[in-house]
Amino acid sequence: MRWFDNVLTKNLNIKYPIIQAPMASAASLELAAAVSNAGGLGSLGLSYHKLGDIFPDYEAVLSMTNHSINLNFMTHKSPRKNDIQAKKYMNEIKKYYEEYKISEIPNLANTTEPFNSEHLEILLKMNPKVVSFHFGLPESNFIKSIKNQNIYIISSATTVKEAKILEDSGADAIIAQGFEAGGHRGTFASSYKEGEIGLFSLLPQIVDATSVPIIAAGGIANGKGIAAAFMLGAKGVQLGTAFLSCPEASVNPLWKNALSESSEKETRITKAFTGRPARGIVNRLLDEMEDKTDIIPDFPTVGSVIKPLANAASRQGKNDFLSLWAGQSAPMNRNIPAKKLVELLVEETSSTFKYLKNS
After folding, report:
1. DSSP state, 281?
2. Which of 107, 131, 142, 289 has the smallest CB count inside 10 Å?
3. pLDDT in tens, 199-212
């Protein structure tokens, strides 16, 4: 049996168990379609979409591919109100607004809503092959409705405890998200510190503790990484950063430049851009907010204040306030089309297994 023929590829109706991470800010319709057309599973992050844009965008991507597409939503808790913290934060941010001569700092506001009944109604209408969630699963009656339509459910875990919760709550497959991963940590039932586990330590523990297919994510950038994940029990892999350098990705040119220079730069986990821990390439805001975590308001309000700064700095060619999401394997990125990347990953994985078999 070939390494890519397994229960996950069968359940998702895909050829290769390679999933492009949803990456709401970067995963374009073109990227998702290209990955699915190449035999993997393309994904669309829909949490930042206006409700009225979700269905049209899904129809648009279906016009580009007749293969499975993963639709992704966030299930975060609503932010807590803390006026004292907010005041301290605004006082800290004020200096940046003055530097860029932006006259008024906007009030903290939600930049995205958690998965709710309106999202559910649209999801059931779209009726995709698969839906994935970040920051846990939605409420049980929502899960029941989704399962009634035989939509495959995936969610992320950063600890064994979270993986068990997801399995017990109805997840059909679980993403084991290692500490190396770029973007937002999926932690939802453990402390953030508890979730700081490297993939190759976390993965076999989750495989042993659960009975559903496990998808490995975090620091995987080539076929050797995929083969290693499979040898530790994964049935699939999810790559995000690796796809950011593809021309189909909707990535700010300053972000793309930072990725191309990532071998000379550090990545760190920060709350500075959104209010939740996420890994990105170190820039000015990340560095200067490193020791001020306690004054950063809850996700998803922070982005409403940072976005005007990011736009102003970007117009001057500076990435100081951009969220340059990237995992620890960013230096291994290859600037090639998504179809070619999927083909190369499959070829490299097959070659690695062949080498191991013959050595």
Report:
1. E
2. 107
3. 999 999 999 999 99
Q: Model's pTM, two decimal places? A: 0.97
Give CA–CA dist 208/288, Å, rounded: 41
Beta bridge partners of 153: 131
Indicate the pLDDT class of residue 286, thresholds 50, 70 and 90: very high
Structure tokens at 353: 């297994």
Mean local confidence (pLDDT), 40-51 = 96
Distance from chain centroid for Cα 85: 28
pLDDT above 90: residue 62: yes
DSSP string for residues in 138-199: --HHHHHHHHHTT-EEEEEESSHHHHHHHHHHT-SEEEEE-TT--EE---SSS-TTTT---H
Q: Is 62 helix (H, G, I), strand (E, B) or coil?
A: helix
What tokens does 140 get? 């049980």
Residue 44 near residue 68, CB atoms below 8 Å: no
Reduce the secondary structure of 25-56 to three states and give it as a string.
CCCCHHHHHHHHHCCCEEEEECCCCCHHHHHH
